[in-house]
């Protein structure tokens, strides 16, 4: 809720009770303070109302009608001063000064100690910084309001001196510190007691288990002050008594220290007011109590600073202990995980020294797990390339990761003593950021059986591809296939049938073994169709048979399938979402054969439709998978590069090789690369054959 909204909202019954209680307590504190106005003093020597006013404003933090708090503080102060014989003008200035002082102090607390402000008096200080901001706020409020107090005194015809400002600032600062701290301590203790319902194991809220120490701090220390003051020691001799506060602040909780400093401070001020003790020997009454107030402030700040620092230190030690226990537990869990992992883990620092090496890594690299933890070289001695050649030091995966940042799936051969057959181990290494210590973490996995299975799968897949080019007078056929892994989801096929040649280019979504299985299934279903030359019906039949498998796998298949009549050069084709088939003519013109339907597995049901075109002498049909288009740039405009390389070739095999060469190093491709080329040899078209027309019947 915004401050404006709070100001408009009416106070609740609780707000009224808080205002009533604090108003009465504040009025009593003002009257009690005015009782300490002695002859010769221009202002009251003690003013507990300053501390009460700060507690009042904090208790009403973010409540409706905040102006009512300021007004009541000013009115009550002015009334108390007025009834004790002060002129109205001076009384009014005194009320304004008291209100200004409390407001400035609370503004500092709200801005720089928001936890105290938000708690509304139900939490005591627990950080040294909160104490310093409270001191700063109290001093600021007292100093800023002191000129108003001096002006008020001047209006009483008593005159004013620097002692007036000193006494005002000292007494009000000490009042805010002692009474404010005592009020927050009591409020926090009552709040905690209500929440815990007294469950403290029998220990009082302010002793925290230090009963004997607290007894000395709250009984013996004040008694020592009484005796010390009764003996009328010199003023300088009073300061050794601060040792009691240093001892209390070093050993006791903050609650007990607040009680201790409040009691000791009360003894000092009251006995000085009574003319007893070393401070009573000073000639001026205001100066006497001013020095006493400053002494009490010194006690309060020293004791609370030590107590709060000790509490922070204990919390920090506790948090560190908890963090240490958690770290040890996590380290133990991590060690157990590393010990039981089926993958090897090898961690080195930036210099290449082994930091962590689990047993699996040691066994994969050396055949045994009892390696010396400080040995960083022995486990790498058996590494070679897959062809058995020696591995350079800069080719080691962790060395590469130090330079490149990350290395993925590097297959190396490992020869270990006593093992007749070498193993293939794949390495994935990642550089550790310098902020985390630097180095490299490497994960090792034995892929010997997996690679053997993939080699067998690749052999099977290769056996499914056409082994020989067909003998087709006037035409040449060639193809290239490079899977992204050992096996892939692309395939090409050609089949000599009565009356011509059927060619197929297909691309199963994805790569790897799963795509390869679907590709083999698709090829088998196409081969099983009864009328292969009816390419549209062939696609429809294969799609019906594949539909359930494609749905279960969440996959689809793009395909180009054509039937060539070599006597005329007519090509009947059906394109299922492939769209990467081109006719390149000798004059350099390019015709892209559009798709005639969606990929298989997208919307099974409607019968497939086909289209026709004709290949003239010298024409080249090129169809390829989308892996090649991705390498080229992914744009249809990039197809012109295919035309350019095809025009410079004289055979279908040259054309297929030239198109594949556009991919650069095909071994690094992220998708399967497949190219199928059908070329009509140069020569004259048969007599009586009309000029070829496009797939839509228009001239090509």
UniProtKB/TrEMBL annotation:
Source species, please?
Cellulomonas hominis
Q: Signal peptide position in this chain?
A: none
Q: Gene3D superfamilies, per this entry?
A: PAS domain, PPM-type phosphatase domain
Every copy of the PPM-type phosphatase domain together lies at 472-680
Pfam families named among the record's database cross-references: SpoIIE
InterPro entries in UniProt: Bact_Sigma-Reg, PAS-like_dom_sf, PPM-type-like_dom_sf, PPM-type_phosphatase-like_dom
> Annotated Gene Ontology MF terms?
phosphatase activity
**Keywords for this protein:** Hydrolase, Membrane, Transmembrane, Transmembrane helix
Q: Does the keyword Transmembrane apply?
A: yes
Q: What's this protein's name? A: PPM-type phosphatase domain-containing protein
